[in-house]
Amino acid sequence: MGCFLCSDGDPSAAKSSPKNTRKNNSKNDKSHPSSDNSKSTPTTEFKKDNPKDSNQSSVANENDDKNKNKSPDNKEPNKAKVRTFTYAQLVTATNNFKGAYFLGEGGFGKVYKGKLEDSDQIVAIKQLDLDGSQGIREFVVEVLTLSMAEHPNLVKLIGYCAEAKQRLLVYEFMPFGSLEDHLHGLRLNKKPLDWNARMKIAAGAARGLEYLHDQMNPAVIYRDLKCSNILLNREYHAKLSDFGLAKVGPLGDKTHVSTRVMGTYGYCAPDYAMTGQLTFKSDIYSFGVVLLELITGRRPIDDTKPASEQNLVTWARPLFKDRKKFYKMADPELEGKYPVRGLYQALAIAAMCLQEQPNMRPLVADVVTALNYLATQKYDPLVHPVQSPWRSRSRSNIDQGGGVSP
Question: Could you tell me the pTM of the whole model?
Answer without folding.
Answer: 0.76
